[in-house]
Amino acid sequence: MAVLRPIVLPQQDEETVGRSALRKASLRLLPLIGIGYGIAYMDRVNVSFAALQMNHDLHFSASVYGFGAGLFFLSYAACEVPSNLLLVRFGARRWLARIMFTWGLLSMGMLLVKTPIQFYAMRFALGIAEAGFFPGIIYYLSRWFPARQRSRAISRFYIALPLSSVVMGSLAGLLLQLQGCWGLAGWQWLFLVEGLPAVALSLVFLLWLPDGPETAAWLNSSERNWLISSLGRDDAATGAPHSGREVHYALRQVRVWVLGIFLFCLYIGNYSYAFAAPTMVQRATGFNATRVGFVIALLGVLGVISMLMNGLHSDKKGERFLHVIIPCLVSGVGFLVAGVSTGPATLLIGFACIMIGFNAVNAAVWTIPCSFLAGKSAAAGIAAINMIAIVGGFVGPYWMGLAAELTGRYERGILACAVPVFAAAFLMVGIRRFALRSAPPVDAPC
Question: How many CB atoms lie within 10 A of CB 137?
Fold first, then answer.
């Protein structure tokens, strides 16, 4: 994907042209990308609902389940940077479609798992297949939405994450009730049905998604020129190189690694919650799988609201860091409350804080890398950040499995997750101080 350069626009009302261009890009791109990411997240963590039956049927211990669930994130992390660079080389349309097709097939293939080794192998392969999808989307949106509108754009597609919890929670319980239908267990139906949409949507991506503004037939020339000019100015303001040294430049940036560690800490908590929440809610409430699913869905709705509100407010104020730090603290408090809970009420209050805080963080944090990266360096830097971060997805579930085997309950593991989440808030305070000393104002390209 070529670096966008500022060009001279025709003499028209730029504000009107800009609004039209952004409206078209939002309507044409964000719903499709959001659906794709929602399906990706569902296929990544639907094993947490499958575990309600699968662990019993296949005699998996908590540590076997936790290790296998987490293996996805190790292979995903290993392939992040090369996958994002291949996206730049082959174009978003073809590469994102390829990712969706292969992960959909492997997700459906999970229904064939019988042994721990097979479980590990399939989760590891699924991570390879999906690698690069999320950072590819973040990079892709940075090639469409100028800095001042970027947080809103990210939050509008990223609401797919909490919305996927709503859909998965509502759907999983129903699919698990298909136990024995056509000779398949309920958890096998879960993997089969939730993997199919990725395969189907890969074709839609291939036919519908333009690689960039330059190839979008639904933009007129004025709108296309406005986007290219605006994005070119943002790229120029970052000071990042545009040829030859982009990857090296990105990987030498301390901020890339600190942001990665920040998200690593945050993801330990989030994926600990994601893979343990259904089981913890069921034990605390005594609900069946369907009612547990609806509880998780309701928590997802709270995440949607917090993400949209924080993204909108972040763009309105032109501020990113406090819009990350404060929600991070809210999430940390949620882990403390859930970890010391003595009944379903306090557990659900804690989980609500976790979902509100984590999703609000994501509305703003992914705008920060493009304040100092552009073009191919942005693709490499975003992928490197997510590569470090996603390892937290291995640590969290594995830690929860060990905690459950050592204590007989998940609560102590959830309580311990408050430590990395509060550490993440502390790291973001340091990033903010550095940015205020040495970087352009945070409402510049970010």
Answer: 25
pLDDT 10s digits, 364-418: 898 888 778 877 788 788 888 988 998 888 888 888 888 888 887 888 899 999 9
In a 13 Å sphere around the CA of 96, the CA atoms on its Cβ side amount to 29
- Residue pair 144/213 in contact (Cβ under 8 Å)? The answer is yes
Place of tokens 């492997």: 106
**Cβ contacts of residue 404 below 8 Å, gap of 6+?**
62, 63, 66, 276, 410, 413
CA torsion sign for 152, 153, 156, 161 is negative
Please report the domains of the chain, with CATH numbers, ordered by start residue. Answer: 21-438 (1.20.1250.20)
Say if residues 358 and 303 touch (Cβ distance below 8 Å).
yes
- Report the C-alpha gap between 196 and 106 in whole angstroms: 10
Alpha-carbon span 293 to 141, nearest angstrom: 32
Question: How far is residue 31's CA from residue 48's CA, in Å, rounded to a whole number?
Answer: 26
Q: What is the mean pLDDT of residues 190-219?
A: 92
Distant-in-sequence, close-in-space partners of 299: CB < 8 Å, separation ≥ 6: 165, 277, 348, 351, 352, 355
In the block, tokens 């640590």 appear at: 395
The C-alpha atoms of residue 192 and residue 202 are separated, in whole angstroms, by 16
Per-residue pLDDT of 53-94, as tens digits, reads: 999 999 998 888 888 888 888 898 889 888 988 998 899 999
SS3 readout for 352-377: HHHHHHHHHHHHHHCCCHHHCCCHHH
Which conformational region is residue 226 in: left (phi greater than 0), alpha (psi within -120 to 50 degrees), or beta? alpha
Residue given tokens 């609900």 in the structure block:
287
The C-alpha atoms of residue 278 and residue 257 are separated, in whole angstroms, by 33
The token pair at 296 is 């998780």
pTM of the predicted model over 0.90: no
